[in-house]
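Entry under discussion copied across for reference:
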Amino acid sequence: MRQSSSRSSVKRRAFLSAAGAAGIAGLAGCTGQSGDGGDGSDGSDGGSSGQSSGGSSGGSSGPTDMVMTTSTETTAAYAMSQGIAAVVNENSEEVRLDARPSEGTNANIGRLDRGEVQIAYIQNWTAAKINAGEKPFGDLSFTPNQVFHLYDLGWFLATANDGWETAADIESGSRVSPTPRGSGTAEMLETALNYSTEDYERVSIDYGGQGSAMSEGRLDVGAATLVNFSIEPGWLQEMKGTTDLRMLGWSDETVAKMEENPGLLLTEVDTGDLENYAYTPDPVTMPSLAYNFVVRNDFSYDAVYNLLSTMWEQRDDLGEYHGLLNTLADGEFWTKNAYDDVPFHPAAADFYQEQGLWSDEFTRGEE
């Protein structure tokens, strides 16, 4: 398996294997009913300046309180954040981490802007919009600073329609749900989909309802994902159990168009080991999202450093709390898919330099 070093503004045509796609037994799903997770929230307009010191210490000698947000309660991301919080709180006297659910990445930026949370994850699509100053991120009171990488999601379209092999097979009037409306993933997948066709009926079906909707003829094409390009969430496994599910690829012409879009991150995945699909292209190109935690640029240096050092010391044991956290046992995973033009918090920069993980391509945030 070969994977290139990937940066959000550079097209990634890495070649990955989807071996072990059934992955973690009992994984309820990497995404909930609100999106990847559910990135259609209030964004950041009208936010206040937030907290410059980063959380309440409850006294000068007490730990720094940090609220961490990812996505909705039904997602693996939220479960992973609970595992991280458990590890940190058991092993640190300097930081107290409180993992809470969120509507998703857009909501996370808004809550950081208002000082309601201290650390939250976003994905590269949102990061690119922040860098461009696009709505709803045109008037932020802070600069996002990166801390560490959590996971990657490779997305693909799927159908139960016999004979369909690529998105080009979508017909006029076909009912397509490129994730529920309002999610950050929806905007990314709609952009990719429109390179193949714009002549479809946009519907919105929750992830867990896609299989039954296909069986009942209410849905022609839905969205599916592989966590870290290898693990199937539970709702995808349920889709395969409900329908003769076919993975849709993209035509060479469509891939060429996607490669020209600086906001799209592409990953080529070997599907030879995937099971129980009626059809899979091999390999398949997946529009992908890299999820990294960020903090405000004015957030406490000591809190960020203590958070990272505690997690690092316990990195081999994180997987006991959630199987997907096993990836953090690999030091290089912590800085994988760092966003271009999003600086690392100074404490994170120092920490990664000490661990030999710093790259000249990274940018250190201002003190």
Remarks:
- The longest strand covers residues 144-159.
- Residues 76-91 form the longest helix (16 residues).
- The chain has a mean pLDDT of 85.
- The chain has nine helices and eleven strands.
